[in-house]
Amino acid sequence: MIDPEQSVKRNSDTSPPTSEKEWVRRVREAGDRSAFEQIFRAYYKRLHGYAYSFVSQKQEAEDIVQTIFLNIWAQREDWDPPGTLKHYLFAAIRNEALNRLRHQQVVQKTEDEVSRIFRELKESSVSEEDDELRELRKDIQRGINQLPPRRRKIFVLNRRSGLTYAEIADFLDISVNTVGTQMGRALKSLREHLSDYLHVLPVVVELTPLLLYLKKL
Pick the residue with more confidence: 134 or 209? Predict the structure, then answer.
């Protein structure tokens, strides 16, 4: 696991912790990295398996476990889990996994909706663009230009270059989950930016294939 911090306060009592409560106390009160690593080693395999039962992807399950432990380390000075450590960790894994699944469902729903609209536009044909369509094209360009640089790059790699999330993750050296999160936020931003048009798209669906336009950006 990546060391969350290079410099860690050490407890003057170097004897091994005798219980999980002692591990927690040492992490909280002394920033004891060895106690933190003991907890990680003791629970990693079981927590990874539990996370995998939700997301069915090894890398995603690993990301979930590391997220939980990185959050614990970042907030270690206030860390005082109620009940047993086992119950706390498994509950944290469950909540993180469910949150990610809900987010993925929202992203998928948004992608499906946008894809449907663009598919309808692609299937239509016209010989000329009217003023409203030209303004819509400009607005799409503005919306994409306003995305944060990395989010815009991920969006273009997916929509223009046709790379999969896994290919983008490998190309940019980031996790697949990060790619999915950034794509979801990009689509959400574009939907909000184009909200006035989305309400009337069924009316202007005979215009021109904006999907092709997006792929050229």
Answer: 134
Collapse the DSSP code of 75 into the 3-class scheme (helix H, G, I; strand E, B; otherwise coil) and give the result: coil
Domain annotation covers residue 165: yes
Q: Rounded to the nearest 10 degrees, how much is the dihedral formed by the CA atoms of 82, 85, 90, 93?
A: 80
Which alpha helices (H) appear in 56-76, and where do they start and end?
58-74
pLDDT for the residue 208: 38
The Cα angle at residue 154 between residues 217 and 164, in degrees rounded to 5: 100
Please indicate, yes or no, whether residues 28 and 63 belong to a single structural domain of this protein: yes
As a whole number of angstroms, the distance between CA 43 and CA 64 comes to: 13
| Cβ-based neighbours of 97, under 8 Å, separated by 6 or more | 51, 54, 55, 64
pLDDT value at position 90? 95
Cα angle: 109, vertex 113, 119; to 5 degrees: 140
Q: Residue 107 corresponds to which tokens in the numbers above?
A: 């992203």
Task: Please give the tally of structural domains in the chain.
Answer: 2
| 169 against 126, higher pLDDT | 169
Domain range for residue 53? 20-99
Alpha carbon 48 to chain centroid distance?
18
pLDDT tens digits for 4-46? 444 334 443 444 445 888 999 999 999 999 999 999 999 999 9
For the chain, what's the residue count? 217
Same domain, 26 and 67: yes
> What are the Cα distances from residue 47, in Å, to 3, 65, 89, 104?
19, 7, 8, 21
